[in-house]
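Entry 14. Ran structure prediction on the chain below.
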Amino acid sequence: MGLVDDIVRHASQERASDVHIAAGLPVRFRVDGSLFDADTTPLTSADCRAICEELVVSGRERLDMMDEIDLAGTYGEGIRCRVNIYRSRGSLVVALRLLSEEIPSLASLGLPPVMMEFPTYRKGIVIITGVTGSGKSTTLASLLNEVNHTRPDHIITLEDPIEYLYVPDKCSIDQRAIGYDTASYADGLRASLREDPDVILIGEMRDLDTIETALTAAETGHLVFATLHTSSAVDSIDRMVDVFPAGRQKQIRLQLSQTIKAVVSQQLLVRREGTGRIAACEVMIVNPAIRNLIREDKTPQMQNTLATSAQEGSITMDNMLIQMAKAKSISRATAVAAAHDPEYVNRLVRA
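Output, structure tokens:
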């Protein structure tokens, strides 16, 4: 068993979500959102290179040819990990994320009830947003696996890298890694439309071509799940539109208004008892009022509409935080710190 296996096994025992490996520092684990030293011995540049050579077993020359490498693998007795290797001041550095050994069931995640309906959608776009490390990949994997267990469909995923591994049940599933199985998200997505998919997962909508093709896929009757890096559901609409030149934005708003089904913005918070984390989700179910605001370029008004659409399953982040604090899932201090409007959350939690 090599260094990587030992590190990953130790990280799993400590309930770490991430591992940081850099010269001049000990191996560091992130547990419940905070970093701590896993050992007292600082690593040398040679140590870091040896670890990287274990990780990039099929192409060590890539370490010298590339400045960043994304990959995924299974280490330390069957623990699936996502890995990024990069350089800092000339030395190799590793950021490694531990993934769940099994895809958690959708019901086990404690998500808002309306999200249980997402796997029943037949077409349109569902977007999961949030900062890095907010649990987007786990939520998407659980949604997709629910489709896998309930519908006889064809699923195509486009991922960079492939994180969770699906075991086909009722679905046929093709997982394609960017840079290995297809050149880019845009290329893989265009090709997927000729591969008879029912459901398409896009690991990240990064550019104009990918967003445009995703809209086309949804318009032509496919169900598309995708991620964005935004801090709120409403911000996601402007992020997608702003990628396009001004002359095309009206058309893109029209397409979005016709295809988008729901946007979820999530963050991971420390549980009230201080161990483990739980997802807090803002959910925007796109109803006729929100469709009209998207079409008319009135996204600033969408937050108010979101706040008054609870009967359809929508919920703002602040109201979700209030619910979680009152249910004792998280502390009041955690809820206030995570809020968009801390004064509002503090007042309502105290009430």
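The chain has a mean pLDDT of 93. Will compare against last week's run tomorrow.
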